[in-house]
Amino acid sequence: MATYLDFEYKIKDIQEDIISAQVRHDLGAVEELKKKLDKEVEKIYKNLSDFQKLQLARHLDRPYALDYINLIMRDKYEIHGDRHFRDDPAILCYIGYIGDEKVMVIGEQKGRGTKNKLKRNFGMPHPEGYRKALRAAKLAEKFNIPVLMLIDTPGAYPGIGAEERNQSEAIARNLLELAELKVPTVSVVIGEGGSGGALAIGVADKFAMMRYSIFSVISPEGCAAILWNDPKKVEIATNALKITSADLKELDLIDDIIDEPLIGAHREKEKAAEVLKEYFLEEVAKLKEMSEEERMEIRYAKLTKPGAFKE
């Protein structure tokens, strides 16, 4: 059963009418209803608030990293473990092919259903997850394989065990090592990009966001709790934080916005996966045209550019 947000119910009604018309073999009604659906989708999705975009980024039906991996990769093989402590299921690492390109894909996985959510720790990686991601990235570097990183996490796990195993060091190490990685790298926020948990696999030659994804230093709920101690002010916090892809592009903090289907990746997963695949292959082709020195210089300039100061 598809899940619908409060502002999507008109779309749900029309889609149900289309199914009824198809069952009746009323082709004329189907065509009219499809036109009506297109108008309703354009009306709703071209006028979304920042809070509604946040809801879409967290939508239960939105494709997760494993969905994209299954849709765009072939001949894939999963890599497990950080060679220090254990395997963290919140981080996925796969080597395989996207098109004709041999690649390493690293992604954060939230999981669906209670059992899988617990297994994946709700998409909140432990230190060993980030160390596994770095091991996979270094393996890709060794064999000169491009890296695609898929960001989708509310944040790094803040539990006692994670702190005991040095969560902050693991994230900081990834920032340093990924900045120096010699192979072409592309990082994409596919859903929710939360704080350092997202940054740990977010340092890349190209950093992009899906149309309805969000990227933030803190969750709107956390912001509302700290500033106002009032969970009802989540929407105000969302607007203030400037966390949408359009906001971050305007601030020049990301390179590109990937145009997932207007109705959202949660409604058209295959089309969203195809757009992501095309973006990755195009950007890798461009990066491969540069020398290693050129890529490193551009990456360094990009990473040191954000921010402003006044004397």
Secondary-structure arrangement, i.e. CATH architecture of the largest domain: Alpha-Beta Complex
Number of domains: 2
Total strands: the figure is 8
Strand content is 15-25%
Q: Radius of gyration, Cα only, in angstroms?
A: 20 Å
Could you give a short account of the major beta sheet? Answer: 8 strands, mixed
- Could you give the distance between the termini? 57 Å
Structure description:
This protein has about 300 residues and is of the alpha/beta class. The chain folds into two domains: about 10-45; about 50-305, 2-enoyl-CoA Hydratase, Chain A, domain 1. Helices cover about 50% and strands about 15% of the residues. The chain has 14 helices and eight strands. Strands 1, 2, 3, 4, 5, 6, 7 and 8 form an eight-stranded mixed sheet that branches. α9 (about 195-200) links the parallel β5 (about 185-195) and β6 (about 205-210). α1 runs antiparallel to α2 and α6 runs parallel beside α8 (about 165-180). The longest helix is centred in the C-terminal third of the chain and has 20 residues, at about 270-290. The radius of gyration is 20 Å and the shape is globular. The N and C termini lie far apart (about 55 Å). The model has no long low-confidence stretch (mean pLDDT about 95).
Considering the chains and any ligands shown, give keywords for the structure:
single chain; 311 residues; alpha/beta; 2-enoyl-CoA Hydratase, Chain A, domain 1; 2 domains; eight-stranded mixed sheet; 14 helices
